[in-house]
Amino acid sequence: MSLLALDAVSVSFGGIAAVRGVTIRVEAGEIHGLIGPNGAGKTSLINAITGIVRTKGGTITFGDREITALPPDVISGRGIGRTFQHVELFREETVLDNVLTGLYSHHVYGVAAAIVGFGPMRRIEDEARREAVTLLDAFDLASFAAAPVRDLPFGIQKRVDLARALAVRPRLLLLDEPISGMSEAEADAAVATIRKLARQRDITLFVVEHNMRVMMRLAEHITVMHQGTVLAEGTPAEIRDDPTVVDAYLGEEDHNA
To answer: What pTM was estimated for this model as a whole?
Structure first.
């Protein structure tokens, strides 16, 4: 059974179809890429999976349960996390505190311990801080630990967003253009780190990305969308050599280069 199953999913806005009858399977433990030209419907599909927008047709199943009509908080509580194209961080808080918010989300402790500040609460805080430092090191963010997020360049904020998203430890993590705003060197390092930490934490990744070079290095299976529909699916090598993809997507990249 696939971890995430989309069956004939459609999304419309004001009568305009953004996603039309999309069927995709994401297997547990894999890194599944979703690519396509601007306006292909990628983010609309991610928003439908996470309950931000309602589907017009089709079903979405996570594990053995349908989640099509559930609200975002319920979907998140079942183990689906995400990042956004434009980072959603606590801008007035430090980098370290932002990552800690992700770690605290999967810890439970007694009210009494929280009030007095010792026992289970103290151990949880110590463990979370150690893990947060490890994540900051992994994304080369240690030197920014005490810096307010608002003061950092967008590319660094994206790395903070990735560290926090992985800290939550969802079963499935949807990454919407995770390396946008990064330099080529930063993107390469982030890709390597995402892959390593997802494996270590048993997190399945569904990655939306416009950068074909990055996707070829990151994903194990790729779905290509074009004009709201699935154009092609396959391994990175198969997608790279598919003439329909070259015409609809890679050709556009060459034209814009």
So the answer is: 0.84
